[in-house]
Amino acid sequence: MEEKKMLRKLIISLFGLVMVHVMAPAPASAIENHLSEAIVHAREAVAAGREGKSSALVLHATNALEHANAAQRERPNAHVKKAIVRLHEAITFGKAKRRAATTIADRALQELERAPK
């Protein structure tokens, strides 16, 4: 029950941050920021998975996916494309509470870290 409350607060906070981000003008380094944000959230997804927190893994993998998609739209890259596929898999596996979600999220993270900045 407490995890649900924390997750709800996190989602509300993230929604607010997304709204601020959407309303703000894009900086010149938006591509790097999206890639960096995708990496940060992918790391958080992996950490959550290692702690057995599948709902947090799904949340962070979803945020990583959003940023990876934005980075891919701005500057297509094979590593980001592979990471996007892996993030989709991690989300699906995480929702099913399968342990493999952590491994898949880690592979997505590795692809994001290989992408040129």
TrEMBL record:
GO terms for molecular function: metal ion binding. Gene3D superfamilies: IL-4 antagonist (De novo design) like domain. It comes from the Bacteria. Transmembrane segments: none annotated. Keywords: Signal. Pfam families: SMBP. Residues 1-24 form the signal peptide. InterPro entries: SmbP. This is Small metal-binding protein.
